[in-house]
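Title: Comparing notes on inverse folding

I've been comparing how different people in this forum approach sequence design from structure. To keep things fair, I'm posting one structure and asking everyone to reply with a full sequence. Here's the target:
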């Protein structure tokens, strides 16, 4: 009788352990599917960004050269302002 009680208790414990593992695996599957859906949405958004920004490729050279000339002009103004500040002993 003692061994039959131990056998039943062992079966119950093993059954509970298997049940807990199945529940955790199901929860993991659900979480992975949700993450997969979010990744599909993210990939779609990134593809839209690539498509929307592709026309800029031809204009970046023009923008860059305009910014370089603006940088030169602003550097010149900065140097003049530093000279004026030194004359007025502000620096």
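Reply #1:
Here's my take.
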């Amino acid at each position: 009788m003692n061994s039959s009680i131990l056998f039943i208790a062992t079966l119950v414990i093993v059954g509970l352990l298997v049940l807990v593992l199945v529940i955790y695996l199901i929860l993991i599957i659900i979480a992975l599917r949700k993450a997969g859906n979010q990744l599909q949405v993210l990939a779609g958004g990134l593809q839209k960004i690539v498509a929307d920004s592709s026309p800029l490729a031809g204009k970046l050279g023009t923008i860059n050269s305009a910014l370089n000339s603006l940088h030169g002009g602003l550097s010149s103004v900065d140097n003049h302002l530093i000279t004026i500040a030194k004359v007025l002993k502000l620096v």
